[in-house]
Amino acid sequence: MSRPGEKRALWTRRHAGHHITTTPTGRRACRTCPINWPINPDSVARVLDGAPGDDLTIGERRVVVPILRARGLTGDQIADRVGCSDRTVWRILTTARQAAA
Ligand SMILES: [Zn+2]
Hints:
Layout: H1 4-14, E1 20-22, E2 28-30, H2 41-48, H3 58-70, H4 75-82, H5 86-100
Antiparallel strand pairs: 1-2
Bound molecules: zinc ion.
Residues 15, 18, 30, 32-33 line the site of zinc ion.
């Protein structure tokens, strides 16, 4: 068992110099390392079912946004649903398109 502070220090070292943000739930998220964005399938399903998604992590948001877009929602509608700006919605969609290409 490691002390809680050790894991945090390790995380900080691993992401030194990266672009760090804090999720609405208070978790730290590295925008440089997409693999570290936690994704909870229950949260994703809940938001796809119509629940407000302002507590989604960045990783979850990136899953939800393209699905809502494929369902025909506008950028504004998606932004309202997931609790971010429409600019963020379009950035996510552009990134998703590039990843798929
Ligand atoms: Zn990182």
